[in-house]
Design a protein that fits this description.
By secondary structure, the chain is an alpha/beta fold. It contains ten helices and ten strands. Helix content is about 40%, strand content about 20%. The radius of gyration is 19 Å and the shape is globular.
Length: about 270
Amino acid sequence: MEPALIKDEDVEVLLNDLFEVSGYDFSGYSKASIKRRINRLFILDRFSSVAEFRYRLRNDRDYLRRFIEQITVTVTEMFRDPSFYKALRNSVLPILGTYPLIRIWHAGCSTGEEAYSMAILLKEANLIHKSLLYATDINPNAIEVAKKGIFPLSTMKLHSENYINSGGAQDFSNYYTAKYDKVKINEDLKKKIIFSTHNLVSDRSFNEFQLIVCRNVLIYFDKDLQSKVFSLFEDSLDTLGFLALGSRETLRFSNISNNFKQFDKEKIWRKIT
């Protein structure tokens, strides 16, 4: 059972504080999810009162960074949902290969595993030489991890299995160098990805893309915020560009649904107007 420490009204006050001191707007996020994470942080950092919590948030820049890191979700893995990557490999990349330049945006990239997965797909399709990937997240700590491209060796078994199930036929270990208990992603993959912080709530479009991947992010947003982000994606996509969402996310009944047609059952849509 969730501890009854932070009340709903306290969540609103804390999120208002956050917006005032940082410009980050979490008001459209799922209230239950945000409350759960704030309560966890309240317990973890042993605050004696909400007032003390607010003071640290408003006056300690290091703690502000920690707060943002802790309430944003950073769960990911390479080739997560292999059938999705198989659909990209077999159906989407052959079409993207007809473009002179391929621009892909991973929105909400977390620590970068899915962006590196895309780079591997592009390399195997002989498209990486004319591709540029933009990978963004609101969490600055996650972006720093992603930029380094260093991950625990213990995760590679799962990632390798995902890769094989996605249709990968190479030796997955060719894409990284192992040292002790860590692995480092190869430089030829890293150099094709630009990692940067970006707030889907408040930041604008920054390019035109042929593919936008935003998986398992929108489930944490309320309907109004989802609509705002969908409009951002529509503005950021070329006509006939692709939008890929997570398994529990959909464009159906959204504010942009009439401008897209479902391209693949793996939650991939194509912009038609």
